[in-house]
Each structure stands twice: as structure tokens, then as C-alpha cells.
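Title: Comparing notes on inverse folding

I've been comparing how different people in this forum approach sequence design from structure. To keep things fair, I'm posting one structure and asking everyone to reply with a full sequence. Here's the target:
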């Protein structure tokens, strides 16, 4: 039984979220503290789904991501298969440009709305821009091009924009500098660079594990909004055997869906797209409208993916969106 005062508070929070007024940290913590194994979260999911109809015009979209290069990475983030210390990826390799272009065109023809080129820091912004130009030339203009790479400065952001990138994926990860080897100040600096550039920002709360507190999650939702992200949402940590955090397990789908609902309600009309990864029908029901299809080098796996990660193809993504009532 939920106390009456909590129900009143909850109704107020949901009204604010669906009207696009945004949510405070306390309100986010209230939402995220609900028991996601009970029906009490159902009105939250419904309100967030309604907000998705309103703020995303009910459009379901696909973000197709190509992991361009493998590189044993000295930063050794404790969840990432590329970490040098975990000895999963032991040699460097990269897809040739022609293969990246060919796969990008295929994804676009199959119905992807974004093509994301994901590279390690070592690949370099200049080389990524050359690749971006080659891909952009072959893509229909309605398909957006996104970059997911390491840190860069204002000149790098301008270079990416001029090469035809519309969007950058960048996130201040949960427990950055503790579970990651990245200097948090450098990460924040790149987010500031993106916020003042012509590039759009997509920023998911990630990589979410069962151990993260409601306060930590609320802080990251609000941080994404503070950097003017137009794409937000959440990504669960995938326990990769051999990485130090694998034994902490994976967050439950319903808890991830609650985080998605909170992100949708906090984002309001300026965050048109809310993404969940890995895919989950429950999260779509809770207001996510973007699904990710991946290929190539994947930090959530021990091996290169030649086709679609976990057999989740563009066709499967379109079907899942359609089944949850999105226009595709
Ligand atoms: S998440 Fe990025 S920075 Fe961290 S180990 Fe993996 S590739 Fe390196």
C-alpha cells in the first residue's frame, strides 16, 4: 500500500513531467526510489510514454553504431573489454574506410536514422573526419551522422562539424575517474566544448549497474540536461567476463525502464529523443523512442561483431518500436 501523501506527490511530479516543466533532483530521486517490481511504477511508465508521444511526436528511431577500431586501451575502464589490463583485446585493428562506408549505406537503406562512427581516442579526430566525409557523401541527407570518440577541443568540434557530423555521443560516466581511467575534468571539458559548438549532444546515463544509487542516477540525468543534450536516456552495463565489474551483474530491465521514464519526464520538449541500450520493450513502454543496433568493435563484448550485436538487426529494432506503438 502506497501512502496517500506519496501518491499526491507522485501525481504532482508526473503532471510536471508531462507538461514539460522538468524535474528537480528531489523529484527524480522520488521517482527512482519507487519499487520497480510493483504496480506503483505503472503510472510513471504511462506518463513517460505519453510524454514521448508529445515530445518525440511518437517517432521511433534507430541509432546504428559502427565500432571502427579495436585498440587495447591504457585507460582500463573497469567495465570495458578494450581495457589493456584485462587482456581481452590484445592487438590493434580497424575496419577499412570502404567497409565502414558500405555498412553505413546498408544501415541507412534498412531504415537507420543515425549512423554513428565509434572510435577509440587513438584513432584521432582528423582521421575520423576523413572517414566522416566519405560516409556523409554516400548517405541521404535525412540520415544524421554521429561521432562517438575520445576527448577533443573547440577546433576538433569545428572539424567534426565541417566533416558532416551532426551529433556527438559523449557522456560523463557513472563514477567517472573511479570505475574509469579518464580524468573527470577532461571529460567535463569536452562536454563544455560540445555544448558551445554547432554539434548536437547525445548523452546517456551509463554504464548503469545494480549498485548505483538513486542520487547518482539523478545527478547524471541532470548533468546531461545541463549540457543541452537533445538525446538522453540510459545504457545498462553489460557484464563482460574478464572485466573487473562483471561480477556485480546487470541492472534489471524494469529498473532500467524506470530510469528511462525519469529521463523522459525530466527532459521535457528540448530532449526529443530518449534512448535505451541494450534494447528493451519495457523501456519503450516507459518513454524511450530510440534503439541502438551495433556492429564492429564493441566494448560490451569480447569479440568483433561482423553482423549485428546479439542478432539485434535494424529489422528487429523497427519491429520492436512498431510493436510498442511508435511510428516508424
Ligand atoms: S571505455 Fe573508452 S577509455 Fe575506457 S577503457 Fe574502454 S576504450 Fe578506453
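Reply #1:
Here's my take.
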Amino acid at each position: 500500500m502506497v501512502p496517500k501523501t506519496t501518491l499526491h506527490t507522485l501525481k504532482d511530479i508526473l503532471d510536471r513531467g508531462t507538461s514539460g516543466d522538468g524535474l528537480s533532483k528531489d523529484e527524480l530521486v522520488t521517482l527512482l526510489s519507487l519499487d520497480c517490481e510493483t504496480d506503483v511504477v505503472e503510472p510513471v511508465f504511462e506518463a513517460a510514454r505519453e510524454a514521448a508521444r508529445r515530445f518525440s511526436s511518437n517517432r521511433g528511431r534507430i541509432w546504428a553504431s559502427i565500432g571502427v577500431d579495436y585498440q587495447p586501451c591504457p585507460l582500463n575502464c573497469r567495465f570495458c573489454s578494450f581495457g589493456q589490463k584485462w587482456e581481452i583485446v590484445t592487438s590493434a585493428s580497424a575496419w577499412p574506410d570502404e567497409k565502414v562506408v558500405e555498412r553505413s549505406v546498408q544501415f541507412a537503406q534498412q531504415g537507420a536514422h543515425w549512423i554513428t562512427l565509434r572510435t577509440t581516442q587513438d584513432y584521432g579526430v582528423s582521421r575520423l573526419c576523413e572517414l566522416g566525409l566519405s560516409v556523409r557523401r554516400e548517405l541521404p541527407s535525412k540520415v544524421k551522422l554521429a561521432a562517438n570518440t575520445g576527448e577533443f577541443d573547440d577546433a576538433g568540434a569545428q572539424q567534426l562539424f565541417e566533416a558532416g557530423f551532426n551529433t556527438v555521443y559523449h557522456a560523463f560516466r557513472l563514477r567517472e575517474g573511479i570505475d574509469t581511467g579518464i580524468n573527470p575534468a577532461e571529460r567535463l571539458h569536452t562536454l563544455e566544448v560540445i555544448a558551445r559548438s554547432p554539434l548536437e549532444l547525445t548523452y546517456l546515463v551509463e554504464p548503469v549497474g545494480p549498485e548505483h544509487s538513486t542520487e547518482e542516477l539523478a545527478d547524471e540525468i541532470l548533468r546531461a540536461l545541463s549540457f543541452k543534450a537533445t538525446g538522453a536516456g540510459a545504457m545498462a552495463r553489460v557484464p563482460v567476463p574478464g572485466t573487473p565489474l562483471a561480477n556485480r551483474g546487470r541492472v534489471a530491465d524494469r529498473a532500467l525502464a524506470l530510469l528511462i521514464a525519469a529521463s523522459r519526464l525530466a527532459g521535457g520538449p528540448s530532449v526529443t529523443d530518449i534512448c535505451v541500450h541494450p534494447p528493451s520493450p519495457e523501456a519503450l513502454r516507459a518513454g524511450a523512442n530510440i534503439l541502438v543496433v551495433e556492429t564492429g568493435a564493441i566494448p560490451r563484448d569480447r569479440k568483433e561483431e561482423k553482423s549485428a550485436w546479439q542478432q539485434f538487426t535494424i529489422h528487429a529494432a523497427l519491429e520492436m518500436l512498431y510493436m510498442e506503438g511508435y511510428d516508424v
